Amino acid sequence: MRFLGIDLGTGSIKLAIVDEAAREVASSSAAYAVTSAHPGWAETSADAWHAALVDAAARLPSDERQAVSAIGFSGQMHGVVPTAADGRALRPAMLWPDTRASALLDAWPEPQPNPVAPGMAGPLLRWLSVNERVVACEMRWALQPKDWLRVRLGGTFVTDPSDACATALAHPSGAWDDALIDRLGLPREWFAPVAVSHGEGGALSARAAAELGLRAGIPMAAGAGDTPCAALGSGLHADGDALLTTGSGGQIVVMCEDAPPSVRGLHAYRAATDTWYRMAAMQNVGVALEAVRGWLGYATWPAAYDDAFAADASASVTFLPYLSGERSPWMNPAARGGWLGLGLDDTRGSMMRAAFEGVAFALRAGLDAIRNSGTPLSAMRLAGGGSIDARWRQLLADALDVELNAVDCPNAAARGAAMLGGIAAGHWRTNELASLAPAATRVAAPRGDAALQRRHARFIDLYGRVEGWF
């Protein structure tokens, strides 16, 4: 018996097949582009997601695909896919880094139970209803990314609490906020019914089964957002368990048995099970480092790492990584970045090193907000494709002042999605998930680097000084 997890990320789709003990036995991935037709826009064709899924599935062993008994879904959170009644995407999906709705956040006056960002479904739909009236008139569903993909495979029109609560259109519990939706002038019928993440979300159609090399009719779980799926797949289950993920963005997740109180700049969302998590969400991690690598002309990541960490850290150069605004803890969509303190003796190596440090300090700002909310953290699990290099891991441990334990699971979100599929099929129960936690290996411990802490203090001071420029 096998279970397939599908993780629909921002720039690629990842698949993982796990066995009866939730051990990964096969995996694959395929990439697609994020486009920007206008400054501040971030879109991807939903059909490109499906094409990438078919491509990635073809790379999995056929015998493993034929053994799959259920499917679970993980998806990039926020954003929205305007969808027709028959499941067709009416326009490219609008994604979480999108800032076109920045001027429309006045509909969510502070205080809010959760921070509202312009790339969430609520602001994006408010923009669409004014600027793309033809699409709005034809639209039947406003779907989250993973829900659109599940529907494309024959699933039902449902969403789950972990995705709904992150749209800025629902209560923290995940139930749709009908009064808010009505006040915004959005049709209530656009929003799919909410089902538990591990509940059945339909069955795989014959057409989709033929495209993917799977058996028709197997159940599909409703699924969950990628962050709660990564937490599940990484073995977080007890109150206080914490995870750092680094990819295009970065998240620090702390599990909570009960709903945590609201704190400005931090999120309190539903988990993939019946619990909650506190989160600091930073936009500018991998996206900022990738931009810097291109600007500085490094052809490969190994070259960038080697040059950056061979260079002595500069006491005067600071990089603010806020290239696309920022969420936790600043909640400043207008924030922008760049280097400060450059001198004639600086090299691209010292600039790349400053970029790594700047991203680490931005993550530290989010972590400090969690600590200040009453959650002391001295150790975290570590996951995500952006945290492989040992030197980068050590810098993160030093900058964050935490011990980092890498999860022995290369595809945590896809694994979590597969586990949701297994629960939907009746193979596991939610009270058995703790026993399925993967091992974790300590990869870095903080060394008490006083010079680094001084550079961190300079970073915070400089952000405060330049914030008014934007």
Automatic annotation (TrEMBL):
Keywords assigned by UniProt, alphabetized: Kinase, Transferase
Matches recorded under InterPro entries: ATPase_NBD, Carb_kinase_FGGY, FGGY_C, FGGY_Carb_Kinase, FGGY_N
Pfam families xrefs: FGGY_C, FGGY_N
Record domain Carbohydrate kinase FGGY C-terminal: where: 306-425
Keyword Kinase: yes
Molecular function terms, GO-annotated: kinase activity
Signal peptide bounds: none
Domain of life: Bacteria
CDD domains: ASKHA_NBD_FGGY_EcXK-like
One of the GO biological process terms: carbohydrate metabolic process
PANTHER family: SUGAR KINASE, XYLULOSE KINASE
Full protein name: Xylulokinase
Species of the source: Caballeronia concitans
